[in-house]
Fold this protein.
Amino acid sequence: MVTDTDMELKRLVGKLERSVIHAAQPRLSPPECFALVTPFIDARLQLIQQRLQHSGAQAQHGLRRVG
């Protein structure tokens, strides 16, 4: 399953390849690179938090059944 975050990662990698990695002279400054990567990091962190909260809720539900 390809998520929106996965598609954003592909776009990000493509832009980094064109603007930094394969460019004769990098066209992105460090702050521009950071601005490009930050939304991806935020999206991944949010997904991880949601999964952890979901797992925690399931564990709590399981404990209630046992107890």
